[in-house]
Amino acid sequence: MSSALAFDLGASSGRAILGRLQDGKIVTEELHRFPNDPVQVGDRLQWDLLRLYHEIKQGLLKAKHAGVEPASIGIDSWAVDYGLLARDGSLLGNPNHYRDRASEGMMEKLGEEIGEAEIFARTGIQFLPFNTIYQLTAQSRAGSPLLESASHLLMIPDLLRYFLTGERYHEFSNATTTQLYNPVSEQWDGALLGHIGVSETLFSPVLKPGAQAGVVQPSVREELGIGPIPVYAVAEHDTASAVVAVPALERSFAYLSCGTWSLLGTEIERPVITDEARALNFTNEGGFGDTYRLLKNIMGLWILQESRRAWERESKSFTFPELVQQAGEAPAFAAFIDPDDPSFMAPGDMPARIRQYCERTGQEAPQTPGAIVRCILESLALKYRYVLELTERLSGQRFGGLHMVGGGIHNTLLCQWTADAIGKPVWAGPSEGSAIGNLAVQWIARGDFKDIWEARSVIRDSFPVTTYEPGAGQAWEAAYEQFSRVTGLDR
Prior knowledge:
Elements: E1 2-9, E2 13-22, E3 25-35, E4 39-41, E5 44-46, H1 49-65, E6 73-76, E7 82-85, H2 106-113, H3 116-123, H4 132-141, H5 145-149, E8 152-155, H6 156-165, E9 170-171, H7 172-176, E10 181-182, E11 187-188, H8 190-196, E12 206-207, E13 211-215, H9 218-224, E14 230-233, H10 238-244, E15 254-258, E16 262-268, H11 275-279, E17 283-286, E18 292-298, H12 302-313, H13 320-329, H14 350-360, H15 369-395, E19 402-405, H16 412-422, E20 426-428, H17 433-446, H18 452-462, E21 466-468, H19 473-487
Parallel strand pairs: 1-6, 6-14, 9-12, 15-19, 19-20
Antiparallel strand pairs: 1-2, 2-3, 4-5, 7-8, 10-11, 13-14, 15-16, 16-18, 17-18, 20-21
């Protein structure tokens, strides 16, 4: 059996998944799962990166205790965040969380100074206030002593891989999310870096997904009692890994990676860097096999997760299944929000913000948890329709349905309402898409699969896919018109 170990780090939890190829199918086993909680320190929101590295080592120990030494290792995580290394290779402080407020206003300032059209032409990346370029601009203009002392910058999975191997590399799919990588020249964009006052020498070579990035270094081998296991640069942005795992049989397909964030788009051969794509704020992120992911970020289940935390602070404890059940019992189409309204970005009292949004847009504000959750889920499903139609327009493709992967597929109400909203089937599965895509890239790199299409075929045969057929078309058409009007998306 050909084994591989995937470390898949999300914005709220991480996991170590052991994968084996057995009788023509993929068999996975969760060896280790751990929380990934950001830490508020004064006015800074940061990641506890060394704790994450500790958990990676615990995953390796659990594999060892299970009598398994994987043939390779890969790490994927969320995008845009980074850490800085000193000249001696030590970490200079905890990386900031992308929801930290330090970079507020930087996107608008750079847009005025350089021009959004120029930035998009150089990068093809969606304008989001937490992109790496804006985080670095904030540090540079604040005269950060950490940035001034730094010798190298590495993205989160690059850093963790560096701790394991001692080798410093960037990986393509995550490098593109920085809004500092030029997909035309296929290198870091010196003009943008020069403008924000950051040296190109901070950045390391960029590896394509599937390249070997070293082996577990001697100090780690001695500490854990393991061998020199090869470490691969997989598709290290977790969405890129999730797209690898989409069990599509057709070459033209649309996907929705659904979790804390929702990312909806399609796989293309060349980035779509046009004025229309910029105006619609789409992004062209790197993928596996010299592809790009034409997609749009949508706020996702973050709004539901943060609402649940707000109710817990009021001593109202609900499980997610309980909230989904209450949503199903609440009146349909009572109120809508645009999930991507800036008021929903930062942590805080999300139910209060939803009520304020509804009052601001002339709607009756939902009051009960069930009504609030229904508002969130219906609004997400309708926003998915809006973005899917834009994706078809920009890519020149027509999709027969939507492949839905990630933890969000456990929310069967959201899956069904998405099918109802788009008027097309939704194919939901697998739920651990990022980890499975991580494993698949390792197996492709090692020759166990000849290409991504063989991998996708095996994934389809190995994991259940649930089909949700659309229904109640007229009601959802009327709801979409109301949603578009209330949110201003019809303008």
